[in-house]
DUF3298 domain-containing protein (Piscibacillus salipiscarius), 257 residues
Amino acid sequence: MNHNAKQTVKYFVIAFIISFIIGQVLSSIFSNAEEVDVDQEKGFDIVETDFDGIRLLTYETSEDIYSVKFELPVFKSDGLNNFFKDYMKRTINQFMSTIEGNVTKERPGNLTVNLDIYQAGEDLYSLVFTESEYTGGANVNETGHTWLVDVKTNRVIKQGELFKNVRKARDIIRPKVQEALLEQTDLGIFEEELEEWVNKPKYMFENMYINDGKLIFRFDKYEITPGAAGMPEAEIPIDNEIQTLLKKNWSQRLGFN
């Protein structure tokens, strides 16, 4: 077997082992949300958060050519737990596939996924994930995922569901985001890329989360700015105009009449 073939088998075996461990251990951890089991020997730990009914799971592992650290929420709902467990498995498997042949012991790959949790409203939380990964080459990439979680109904809410009319919400909110970003002159905004985002036809507010009475829009590293700017954000207060765009039940859940 030649060197390249051996490397391919090695990455396949590593990815399979990680996927197996994650599947087995997470199934054990999530099997009883009231009494969460922890397996620190396999890199899993869990702590309480400031939010009732949400715990924070941490998974860490490393080998000579890579390291992984992942933070994940744990709820009392199997459905929510399965959603985020699948997200974790997909992200790690994609990372393992990408580093194949691109990292070495001298320059190992790294995946770090951090989670910030914010209370958006009544029984409604913003979950903001930051994925930082080195998969070879010169740069570390940073991307984000944001989800709204309704613990009253135990489901993930698509951001577009908040609005009466998504098209009208796009037309009103995105120019405000554009203006807020351009006002941050130190970001070095790529205006052409930002304009493309403003005019994206099927945009569903997937990079938006809610915190402290504001809609916050988060962009990936390099998406609309140079790498030095990291992951830029724009904050839009939920004023009277924005409130009129919200469905009544969501406006009430966010604390507005």
Strands lie at 44-48, 55-63, 66-74, 109-121, 124-134, 141-150, 155-157, 208-211, 214-218, 233-237.
